[in-house]
Please model this.
Amino acid sequence: MPLYQSGVSDVGVESSASALSWGPVIGGAVAAAATALILLLLGAGVGLTMVSPWSGESASFTTVSITAAIWFVVVQWLASALGGYLTGRLRTKWAGVHTDEVFFRDTAHGFLSWALATVLVAGLAGSAFTSLVGGGVQALASATSTATIAGATSGSADNTGPNVAAGYFTDALLRPQDLRNRAQTDDAAAVAEVSRILLNSATAGSMPDEDKTYLSAVVASRTGLTPEEAKARVDAVLQRIDQAKIETQEAADKARKSASTTAMLGALSLLVGAFIASAAAALGGRQRDDEEAALIAKL
Model:
């Protein structure tokens, strides 16, 4: 007997039963979320076996990252398929509904089950892709901070923010003429002043010529080098600082690109998971109706 009679008009007739069955949707979502959590814990346990503090016994960071990303995708797809299939199998039969409408309702139920499971997993365990994106942003901020700190050879813990600028300009106003006698009698003050100069130049992106000349004079007075040798040492150190800044900026850019790629692939993976859940729900619903029809035929 067909599920839908085309010769019977039901215009103006509203069914008392809702087309949305929350019971199967919630059941499928809970099953999908639980499956995802179990598989994620299993993957974390296996992943930890790939990492070792001993040199030469641990997998590379790239290998671990790629493996974790692949496992996360597989977990999400498997959980989506299970949740969607259970949603389709557990819903009640819709009597007097066209097969096309039944298919649409099943896919909608599977999609809702996937959406609810995704929200549950994100709330309980945290979104892995959001964490990766946040990690990329944090790496960018850390790299920028490292580039700034690379300009200092030493200094006190309070030499940050406005204190650095204030200390730098204060030093510029009070720079003595007799550098040799001052450097020999006040080493701590000289080291702190050099640190502030380097921090200021790292923050500004370049060092003024007068600061280079002053640093060369300080180095010459402290080390006994000739002015030419002191200037060469200052230039070498500044070159190493610039190289460190470039390396940290490259690392930050690499982390940004990696986070961007991961976010886009994560969004694509979630969309595929939604499709899998919808298709699985339609499959489960059709199998449920076919088995019931076969049972009725036997009777």
In short: Residues 1-12, 146-161 have pLDDT under 50 and may be disordered. Residues 227-298 form the longest helix (72 residues). The radius of gyration is 33 Å. The CA atoms of residues 34 and 173 lie 66 Å apart.
